[in-house]
Amino acid sequence: TPYFSLFQQVFEFKFLRKRGQESRFKSEDIAQNPGGSLAFVEARQILAQKYGPEKATTLNTYAAMKSGLKNWDGSGSISSTLSGKAKKRHDDYYDLARAAHPDDWEDRELDGQMLYESSGGIPRGAIKKADVISIAREKKLRPLSSASFRQTIQENEELKRRAIQENEELKRRNENLQKIVDMHGRLFLALFKEMGKELP
């Protein structure tokens, strides 16, 4: 049935989303970079070794991971080596950090929650805004059993029956009101004729 399928999909979606979020926030590596790249700590150590500890900030490390250490320029700071997507993520994070901490945003450590928000969600467990809104607007679903399904069908039939009855009642009232309006119109016409005047 479509109701059970919808319930199953929503349940699975929520379960996977929650599992992804929990795994991301449990990790000490706040700038997870899946896909065979170096872990955050390793990338930071390499930056510190090559360019000195002052260049191995968490933000530079994150940018180096996104552009690749091989493409990193000799200065050890963010440069034009970032790809379009990585640069956009980096700039979005900068904007969020500036907005949250206008005085000392450059000195702060990389914030995992801000990073998650600025990148639109990390791929594992990431969700589309439309999905979140539709689930938030949804009524709470309950597991469908044959008894609850029958009850739902009975409730729907009862609602249809009531709607038809109310519709018939409204039609009757409308007809009665129309008769009263017609009668009042005839009375006014007769009254104005007796007075010898025309209806305005």
Describe, in short, the structure shown.
Keywords: Coiled coil. This protein is an all-alpha fold and 200 residues long.
Question: What is the secondary structure topology, with strand pairs?
Answer:
Elements (H helix, E strand, L loop, with lengths): L1 H25 L13 H12 L6 H10 L16 H17 L11 H7 L10 H9 L8 H50 L5
Helix pairs in contact: 2-3, 4-5
Describe this structure in words.
The chain has 200 residues and is mainly α. It has 2 domains: 2-137, no CATH class; 145-200. The protein is built from 7 helices and no strands. The two termini are 64 Å apart. InterPro entries: EN-1/SPM. Keywords: Coiled coil. Residues 149-187 form a coiled coil.
Morphology: elongated
Distance, first to last CA: 64 Å
Succession of helices and strands: HHHHHHH
Estimated helix fraction = 55-70%
Strand elements, count: 0
Q: Which band does the percent of strand residues land in?
A: under 5%
What is the overall number of helices? Answer: 7
Q: Report the biggest beta sheet as strand number plus sense, adding barrel if it closes.
A: none
**Multimeric status of the protein:** single chain
Instruction: Give the tally of structural domains.
Output: 2
Helix- and strand-based class? mainly alpha
Instruction: Provide mean pLDDT, rounded.
Output: 75
Low-confidence stretches: none
The radius of gyration over CA amounts to: 34 Å
